[in-house]
Amino acid sequence: xxxxxxxxxxxxxxxxxxxxxxxxxxxxxxxxxxxxxxxxxxxxxxxxxxxxxxxxxxxxxxxxxxxxxxxxxxxxxxxxxxxxxxxxxxxxxxxxxxxxxxxxxxxxxxxxxxxxxxxxxxxxxxxxxxxxxxxxxxxxxxxxxxxxxxxxxxxxxxxxxxxxxxxxxxxxxxxxxxxxxxxxxxxxxxxxxxxxxxxxxxxxxxxxxxxxxxxxxxxxxxxxxxxxxxxxxxxxxxxxxxxxxxxxxxxxxxxxxxxxxxxxxxxxxxxxxxxxxxxxxxxxxxxxxxxxxxxxxxxxxxxxx
Length: 305
Description:
By secondary structure, the chain is of the alpha/beta class.
Protein backbone atom coordinates (compact mmCIF):
# COMPACT_ATOMS: atom_id res chain seq x y z
CA UNK A 1 0.00 0.00 0.00
CA UNK A 2 1.21 3.48 -0.84
CA UNK A 3 2.29 5.57 2.18
CA UNK A 4 0.45 8.89 2.32
CA UNK A 5 0.85 11.65 4.89
CA UNK A 6 -2.21 13.76 5.74
CA UNK A 7 -1.70 17.33 6.95
CA UNK A 8 -4.42 18.63 9.26
CA UNK A 9 -4.65 21.85 11.25
CA UNK A 10 -7.10 21.86 14.15
CA UNK A 11 -8.61 24.65 16.21
CA UNK A 12 -11.50 24.17 18.62
CA UNK A 13 -12.84 21.35 16.49
CA UNK A 14 -14.36 19.15 19.19
CA UNK A 15 -17.83 19.03 17.62
CA UNK A 16 -16.94 17.21 14.40
CA UNK A 17 -13.34 16.05 14.86
CA UNK A 18 -14.05 12.44 15.82
CA UNK A 19 -16.13 11.75 12.71
CA UNK A 20 -13.39 13.21 10.52
CA UNK A 21 -10.65 11.19 12.20
CA UNK A 22 -12.69 8.00 11.94
CA UNK A 23 -13.20 8.58 8.23
CA UNK A 24 -9.48 9.19 7.73
CA UNK A 25 -8.47 6.00 9.49
CA UNK A 26 -11.09 4.10 7.48
CA UNK A 27 -9.39 4.90 4.16
CA UNK A 28 -8.94 1.84 1.98
CA UNK A 29 -5.76 0.46 0.40
CA UNK A 30 -3.37 3.22 1.51
CA UNK A 31 -0.86 3.42 4.35
CA UNK A 32 -2.12 6.34 6.46
CA UNK A 33 0.10 8.69 8.45
CA UNK A 34 -1.66 11.68 10.00
CA UNK A 35 0.29 14.80 10.97
CA UNK A 36 -1.79 17.26 13.00
CA UNK A 37 -0.85 20.72 14.18
CA UNK A 38 -3.19 22.12 16.81
CA UNK A 39 -3.42 25.89 16.54
CA UNK A 40 -3.93 26.65 20.24
CA UNK A 41 -7.32 25.04 20.88
CA UNK A 42 -9.00 25.77 24.22
CA UNK A 43 -11.78 23.18 23.99
CA UNK A 44 -11.47 19.38 24.11
CA UNK A 45 -9.75 19.09 20.71
CA UNK A 46 -6.38 18.15 22.21
CA UNK A 47 -8.00 15.55 24.46
CA UNK A 48 -9.70 13.98 21.44
CA UNK A 49 -6.43 13.95 19.53
CA UNK A 50 -4.80 12.31 22.55
CA UNK A 51 -7.36 9.49 22.38
CA UNK A 52 -6.44 8.79 18.77
CA UNK A 53 -2.73 8.97 19.56
CA UNK A 54 -3.26 6.10 21.97
CA UNK A 55 -5.49 4.21 19.53
CA UNK A 56 -3.13 4.65 16.54
CA UNK A 57 0.32 5.22 18.11
CA UNK A 58 2.23 4.50 14.89
CA UNK A 59 -0.11 6.44 12.62
CA UNK A 60 -0.65 9.87 14.13
CA UNK A 61 1.62 12.65 15.35
CA UNK A 62 0.25 15.79 17.01
CA UNK A 63 2.18 19.05 17.11
CA UNK A 64 0.85 21.30 19.85
CA UNK A 65 1.39 24.96 19.03
CA UNK A 66 0.30 28.50 19.74
CA UNK A 67 -2.43 30.17 17.74
CA UNK A 68 -1.08 31.59 14.49
CA UNK A 69 -4.13 31.24 12.24
CA UNK A 70 -4.95 28.47 9.80
CA UNK A 71 -2.89 29.83 6.92
CA UNK A 72 0.37 29.88 8.87
CA UNK A 73 -0.54 26.66 10.63
CA UNK A 74 -0.83 24.75 7.35
CA UNK A 75 2.38 26.36 6.09
CA UNK A 76 4.09 25.07 9.24
CA UNK A 77 2.76 21.59 8.48
CA UNK A 78 4.13 21.68 4.93
CA UNK A 79 7.61 22.59 6.15
CA UNK A 80 7.53 19.99 8.92
CA UNK A 81 6.38 17.25 6.56
CA UNK A 82 9.15 18.08 4.11
CA UNK A 83 11.83 17.39 6.71
CA UNK A 84 10.20 14.58 8.72
CA UNK A 85 8.14 12.52 6.25
CA UNK A 86 10.58 11.96 3.42
CA UNK A 87 9.49 8.35 2.86
CA UNK A 88 5.97 9.40 1.86
CA UNK A 89 5.36 9.65 -1.87
CA UNK A 90 1.99 11.39 -1.45
CA UNK A 91 0.51 14.06 0.80
CA UNK A 92 -3.01 15.34 1.44
CA UNK A 93 -4.61 18.36 3.11
CA UNK A 94 -7.45 17.77 5.57
CA UNK A 95 -9.89 19.99 7.42
CA UNK A 96 -11.08 19.02 10.88
CA UNK A 97 -14.80 18.79 10.21
CA UNK A 98 -15.51 16.89 6.97
CA UNK A 99 -16.22 13.22 6.34
CA UNK A 100 -14.09 11.33 3.83
CA UNK A 101 -15.52 8.43 1.87
CA UNK A 102 -13.39 5.25 2.13
CA UNK A 103 -12.01 5.39 -1.42
CA UNK A 104 -10.99 9.08 -1.36
CA UNK A 105 -7.23 8.71 -1.03
CA UNK A 106 -6.89 5.54 -3.07
CA UNK A 107 -8.62 7.26 -6.00
CA UNK A 108 -6.30 10.26 -5.78
CA UNK A 109 -3.14 8.15 -5.57
CA UNK A 110 -4.14 6.15 -8.65
CA UNK A 111 -4.58 9.39 -10.59
CA UNK A 112 -1.24 10.80 -9.44
CA UNK A 113 0.69 7.66 -10.35
CA UNK A 114 0.34 8.77 -13.97
CA UNK A 115 2.50 11.83 -13.21
CA UNK A 116 5.46 10.32 -11.35
CA UNK A 117 8.63 12.32 -11.88
CA UNK A 118 7.05 15.79 -12.02
CA UNK A 119 5.26 17.89 -9.41
CA UNK A 120 1.59 16.99 -9.57
CA UNK A 121 -1.63 17.77 -7.70
CA UNK A 122 -5.03 16.06 -7.66
CA UNK A 123 -8.27 17.67 -6.51
CA UNK A 124 -11.91 16.70 -6.78
CA UNK A 125 -15.49 17.83 -6.63
CA UNK A 126 -17.33 17.99 -3.29
CA UNK A 127 -20.64 16.96 -1.82
CA UNK A 128 -22.32 19.88 -0.04
CA UNK A 129 -23.08 18.50 3.42
CA UNK A 130 -25.18 20.43 5.92
CA UNK A 131 -27.25 19.42 8.95
CA UNK A 132 -26.40 15.78 8.33
CA UNK A 133 -27.75 15.81 4.78
CA UNK A 134 -25.81 15.28 1.55
CA UNK A 135 -27.23 17.99 -0.72
CA UNK A 136 -25.38 16.87 -3.84
CA UNK A 137 -22.38 17.94 -5.88
CA UNK A 138 -21.19 21.53 -5.61
CA UNK A 139 -19.66 21.77 -9.09
CA UNK A 140 -21.47 20.22 -12.02
CA UNK A 141 -19.07 21.12 -14.82
CA UNK A 142 -15.51 19.98 -15.40
CA UNK A 143 -12.81 22.55 -14.68
CA UNK A 144 -9.94 23.17 -17.10
CA UNK A 145 -6.99 24.60 -15.21
CA UNK A 146 -4.89 27.00 -17.29
CA UNK A 147 -1.87 29.16 -16.59
CA UNK A 148 -4.08 32.26 -16.64
CA UNK A 149 -7.24 31.21 -14.85
CA UNK A 150 -5.32 29.70 -11.94
CA UNK A 151 -4.06 33.22 -11.20
CA UNK A 152 -7.63 34.52 -11.09
CA UNK A 153 -9.26 31.89 -8.92
CA UNK A 154 -8.51 28.87 -6.77
CA UNK A 155 -10.42 25.85 -8.03
CA UNK A 156 -8.76 23.32 -5.71
CA UNK A 157 -10.56 23.16 -2.36
CA UNK A 158 -7.92 22.14 0.15
CA UNK A 159 -9.73 19.21 1.73
CA UNK A 160 -9.82 17.46 -1.68
CA UNK A 161 -6.17 18.11 -2.53
CA UNK A 162 -3.63 15.28 -2.75
CA UNK A 163 -0.15 15.86 -4.18
CA UNK A 164 3.14 14.06 -4.70
CA UNK A 165 6.48 14.47 -2.97
CA UNK A 166 7.90 16.40 -5.92
CA UNK A 167 5.33 19.14 -5.42
CA UNK A 168 5.97 19.14 -1.67
CA UNK A 169 9.62 19.88 -2.45
CA UNK A 170 8.62 22.79 -4.69
CA UNK A 171 6.42 24.18 -1.89
CA UNK A 172 9.50 24.51 0.33
CA UNK A 173 11.65 26.40 -2.20
CA UNK A 174 10.71 29.72 -0.61
CA UNK A 175 8.37 31.37 1.85
CA UNK A 176 5.68 33.54 0.24
CA UNK A 177 5.78 37.09 1.55
CA UNK A 178 2.01 37.14 2.03
CA UNK A 179 -0.52 34.85 3.68
CA UNK A 180 -1.85 33.01 0.66
CA UNK A 181 -4.04 30.02 1.62
CA UNK A 182 -2.09 26.76 1.53
CA UNK A 183 -4.38 25.09 -1.00
CA UNK A 184 -4.33 28.02 -3.43
CA UNK A 185 -0.54 28.34 -3.33
CA UNK A 186 -0.09 24.60 -3.89
CA UNK A 187 -2.61 24.70 -6.76
CA UNK A 188 -0.90 27.62 -8.51
CA UNK A 189 2.56 26.10 -8.18
CA UNK A 190 1.28 22.80 -9.56
CA UNK A 191 -0.44 24.43 -12.54
CA UNK A 192 2.47 26.75 -13.37
CA UNK A 193 5.32 24.33 -12.73
CA UNK A 194 3.87 20.82 -13.02
CA UNK A 195 0.65 18.93 -13.61
CA UNK A 196 -2.91 19.12 -12.22
CA UNK A 197 -5.69 16.54 -12.37
CA UNK A 198 -9.32 17.40 -11.59
CA UNK A 199 -11.80 14.66 -10.69
CA UNK A 200 -15.44 15.71 -11.30
CA UNK A 201 -16.56 13.04 -8.84
CA UNK A 202 -16.67 13.58 -5.09
CA UNK A 203 -15.34 11.40 -2.29
CA UNK A 204 -15.90 13.84 0.55
CA UNK A 205 -18.84 15.24 2.50
CA UNK A 206 -17.88 18.92 2.69
CA UNK A 207 -19.47 19.97 5.95
CA UNK A 208 -20.92 23.48 6.19
CA UNK A 209 -21.69 25.07 9.54
CA UNK A 210 -21.48 28.38 11.36
CA UNK A 211 -17.80 27.92 12.33
CA UNK A 212 -16.40 27.34 8.84
CA UNK A 213 -13.31 29.45 8.14
CA UNK A 214 -14.06 29.29 4.41
CA UNK A 215 -17.12 27.62 3.01
CA UNK A 216 -19.41 27.23 0.09
CA UNK A 217 -21.87 30.09 -0.40
CA UNK A 218 -25.35 29.04 -1.48
CA UNK A 219 -27.89 31.73 -2.24
CA UNK A 220 -27.71 34.80 -4.46
CA UNK A 221 -27.60 37.25 -1.55
CA UNK A 222 -24.61 35.51 0.07
CA UNK A 223 -22.75 35.38 -3.23
CA UNK A 224 -23.16 39.09 -4.04
CA UNK A 225 -22.48 40.19 -0.48
CA UNK A 226 -19.18 38.29 -0.63
CA UNK A 227 -18.31 39.92 -3.95
CA UNK A 228 -18.86 43.46 -2.63
CA UNK A 229 -16.95 42.63 0.55
CA UNK A 230 -13.95 41.38 -1.40
CA UNK A 231 -13.97 44.44 -3.65
CA UNK A 232 -14.05 46.90 -0.73
CA UNK A 233 -11.67 45.01 1.59
CA UNK A 234 -8.34 46.94 1.71
CA UNK A 235 -6.50 43.76 2.69
CA UNK A 236 -7.46 42.23 -0.67
CA UNK A 237 -6.36 45.22 -2.74
CA UNK A 238 -3.62 44.18 -5.18
CA UNK A 239 -3.59 40.65 -3.73
CA UNK A 240 -3.34 38.95 -7.14
CA UNK A 241 -0.63 41.32 -8.30
CA UNK A 242 1.38 40.67 -5.12
CA UNK A 243 0.83 36.93 -5.43
CA UNK A 244 2.08 36.96 -9.02
CA UNK A 245 5.22 38.80 -7.97
CA UNK A 246 5.86 36.27 -5.20
CA UNK A 247 5.36 33.38 -7.61
CA UNK A 248 7.95 34.91 -9.92
CA UNK A 249 10.37 35.55 -7.07
CA UNK A 250 10.26 31.95 -5.85
CA UNK A 251 9.39 29.81 -8.86
CA UNK A 252 10.21 31.78 -12.02
CA UNK A 253 12.98 29.39 -13.13
CA UNK A 254 10.72 26.36 -12.56
CA UNK A 255 7.67 27.56 -14.49
CA UNK A 256 6.64 26.41 -17.93
CA UNK A 257 7.67 29.24 -20.33
CA UNK A 258 4.07 30.13 -21.21
CA UNK A 259 3.17 30.08 -17.53
CA UNK A 260 5.91 32.58 -16.74
CA UNK A 261 4.57 34.92 -19.40
CA UNK A 262 1.06 34.69 -17.91
CA UNK A 263 2.35 35.50 -14.42
CA UNK A 264 4.52 38.37 -15.68
CA UNK A 265 1.53 39.88 -17.50
CA UNK A 266 -0.47 40.04 -14.27
CA UNK A 267 2.48 41.12 -12.09
CA UNK A 268 3.26 44.09 -14.35
CA UNK A 269 -0.22 45.16 -15.41
CA UNK A 270 0.04 48.55 -13.65
CA UNK A 271 3.36 49.47 -15.30
CA UNK A 272 1.57 51.14 -18.20
CA UNK A 273 -1.90 51.85 -19.58
CA UNK A 274 -1.27 49.46 -22.46
CA UNK A 275 -0.38 46.68 -20.01
CA UNK A 276 -3.58 47.32 -18.11
CA UNK A 277 -5.68 47.25 -21.26
CA UNK A 278 -4.06 44.01 -22.45
CA UNK A 279 -4.93 42.35 -19.18
CA UNK A 280 -8.43 43.86 -19.15
CA UNK A 281 -9.30 42.36 -22.53
CA UNK A 282 -7.56 39.02 -22.05
CA UNK A 283 -10.39 36.52 -21.55
CA UNK A 284 -7.97 33.86 -20.30
CA UNK A 285 -7.89 35.44 -16.84
CA UNK A 286 -11.36 34.33 -15.86
CA UNK A 287 -13.22 33.13 -12.82
CA UNK A 288 -15.70 31.32 -15.11
CA UNK A 289 -18.59 33.34 -13.71
CA UNK A 290 -20.06 36.52 -15.23
CA UNK A 291 -20.61 38.22 -11.88
CA UNK A 292 -17.16 37.42 -10.54
CA UNK A 293 -15.53 38.38 -13.85
CA UNK A 294 -17.29 41.76 -13.69
CA UNK A 295 -15.65 42.53 -10.34
CA UNK A 296 -12.36 41.11 -11.63
CA UNK A 297 -12.43 43.64 -14.49
CA UNK A 298 -13.32 46.44 -12.08
CA UNK A 299 -10.26 45.60 -10.01
CA UNK A 300 -8.08 45.89 -13.11
CA UNK A 301 -9.61 49.28 -14.04
CA UNK A 302 -9.16 50.69 -10.53
CA UNK A 303 -5.73 49.13 -10.05
CA UNK A 304 -6.83 46.88 -7.20
CA UNK A 305 -6.25 43.45 -8.71
